[in-house]
Automatic annotation (TrEMBL):
Its EC number is 3.1.-.-. A motif (HXTX 1) lies at residues 34-37. It comes from the Bacteria. Gene3D superfamilies: Cyclic phosphodiesterase. The lineage of its organism: Bacteria, Bacillati, Bacillota, Bacilli, Bacillales. A motif (HXTX 2) lies at residues 116-119. This is Putative phosphoesterase GJU40_14010.
Length: 172
């Protein structure tokens, strides 16, 4: 089964992201707006209890993380994804590093960790340029604290759903 680990932002930020995702993200219906902490990886049924215990331990040793967003950005020219740029913080980096080591390590990640919330992807070059140009003129200043992360699994139809939630800073 395919799993992933994400942070879900507040409803306010999800609503903002979805106002763009409805139009510019073909994955809009498959998963809510999120910040990916660990890219999709495979687990079998027997591995899930040990992974859950490891995630609970990591969560208990990790402080809640601040999410600060001040601009829109893009991964161009690598791909035409547009996102809300999340400012890297020590807590966020530590959490992401912890989740990508130990028994969860699946080799080197395909990409360096760039904290973000995708709002558009798979855009044509012209559409990407137009949308990003408009968004860069838009002012955004959002800050919030997130106190949990989620282990998700992918359903047969390609959508993602929460398997388990882990509260940060609480030894459970």
């Amino acid at each position: 089964m395919k799993f992933g680990i994400v942070l879900f932002p507040s409803k306010k930020l999800q609503d903002l992201a979805n106002s763009y995702r409805k139009r510019y993200d073909p994955h809009y219906a498959l998963i809510p707006p999120h910040l990916t902490l660990k890219a999709p990886f495979e687990l079998n049924e027997e591995q899930i209890p040990a992974v859950s215990a490891l995630l609970r331990d990591i969560a208990g040793r990790t402080k809640p993380v601040s999410l600060n967003i001040a601009k829109f950005s893009s991964f161009s020219p690598v791909n035409n994804a547009i996102y809300l740029k999340v400012q890297a913080t020590e807590e966020l980096d530590q959490l992401q590093t912890a989740l990508n080591q130990n028994d969860l390590s699946t080799g080197e990640p395909e990409y360096a960790f760039v904290p973000h919330i995708t709002i558009g992807q798979k855009l044509s070059d012209d559409e990407h340029s137009d949308v990003l140009g408009q968004l860069r003129m838009t002012s955004i200043d959002h800050e919030e604290v997130i106190d949990r992360f989620h282990l998700l699994y992918q359903l047969e139809n390609g959508s993602w759903t929460v398997y388990e939630t882990f509260h940060l800073g609480r030894e459970e």
